[in-house]
């Protein structure tokens, strides 16, 4: 006798479907730097004139910061990969919690708002859950510049109480070369009275890009890219046009994509000096890398062997490429060791890689990896932006099919990643919400398509 039908429905969120194991070829094109674009957009608050920022990637983080700037009263016009921002009529010094909570870079607005309006009120920021990223260094720097800062109920309130509401120059030494703190203090001090020095400053290319744009706006910044930055405050800044540097993290991800799929590729545009530590490790593990015209590199992987890395601030090996490099090491010959020294919760990709057959053991923030012959396709999920990229690299190189969920993380930092990989030869496509059903009837299971067949047969 037939049993009663049991219906189980499962909703699959937007995801990527990947058929792994395919060679790549051709060119992987690198977009503008996400981390640079965000801080450059915040810097638009420093001037009443129009700022044109070109080569801006289309990412969800860019959209969120655009909404924040609009909320403050700025006007934005977007054309392709360019954004025109006019902050003449900013009327609001308070950022909305919901938008700030999803984007750590929103905290960059505090420096420009203080410098321009003499006040700012910003909830503590969110972003990827990769460990403690305190804003103490930002706040201590702003206090040194003369701001009064209070944190109450997870909201940072800052104001300048002097009559002219201008910050004043100061000598500031950072306890740690924080990129965010360096950028916040750099922007705030451009309109301060007198001279500011930032010692133990971060040296990342994104800071050099910010200083270059600020100088074209009339600021007086010197030493960006070194451990000591000097800023001579000016009364006003003007508008300018600026093109964002190539995204070194995306470029590094693409170089690793070549290595993990054992596929010769051309990657660019990029600035090789921005990737010196990554290029060195790729060469050390078995890749030939050479210049290919202006701003492009040609990479030819050979047998990949295990190498050790330790993350550190620029010019060291970037923490943002630790996860993608671990995917590569999971397929390398021999053993390797990866030590994360920047963020304490940046190993969220390890369990997903193990699902795919990787041999990895964790000892606090150090991963011990024994390379396997091949990874196996699986249903996997990204827990943060860079772990998502690592898992996708594993998927495109793996034997068999994979389903990747976690696009909300991926879309924060990679512009049209699946389209770029697909154009280079990967079989990868984006799928949206799907409902799948299983029906148990007379001890048999039917997919939803089979149900329709049964109905038609009846």
UniProtKB/TrEMBL annotation:
Catalytic activity, EC: 2.5.1.7
GO biological process, one term: peptidoglycan biosynthetic process
Keywords: Cell cycle, Cell division, Cell shape, Cell wall biogenesis/degradation, Cytoplasm, Peptidoglycan synthesis, Pyruvate, Transferase
Residues the record marks as active site: 128
Pathway(s): Cell wall biogenesis; peptidoglycan biosynthesis
Gene responsible for this protein: murA
Protein name as it appears in the record: UDP-N-acetylglucosamine 1-carboxyvinyltransferase
GO MF annotation list: UDP-N-acetylglucosamine 1-carboxyvinyltransferase activity
Protein's UniProt keywords contain Nucleotide-binding: no
Annotated function: Cell wall formation. Adds enolpyruvyl to UDP-N-acetylglucosamine.
Family under the similarity heading: Belongs to the EPSP synthase family. MurA subfamily.
Subcellular location: Cytoplasm
A GO term from the CC aspect: cytoplasm
Pfam families in UniProt: EPSP_synthase (PF00275)
Residues reported in the UniProt entry to bind UDP-N-acetyl-alpha-D-glucosamine: 104, 320, 342
2-(S-cysteinyl)pyruvic acid O-phosphothioketal: modified positions: 128
Enolpyruvate transferase domain ranges (all copies): 18-421
Residues engaged in binding phosphoenolpyruvate: 34-35
Annotated source species: Prochlorococcus marinus XMU1408
Keyword flag Cell membrane: no
Catalytic reaction annotation: phosphoenolpyruvate + UDP-N-acetyl-alpha-D-glucosamine = UDP-N-acetyl-3-O-(1-carboxyvinyl)-alpha-D-glucosamine + phosphate
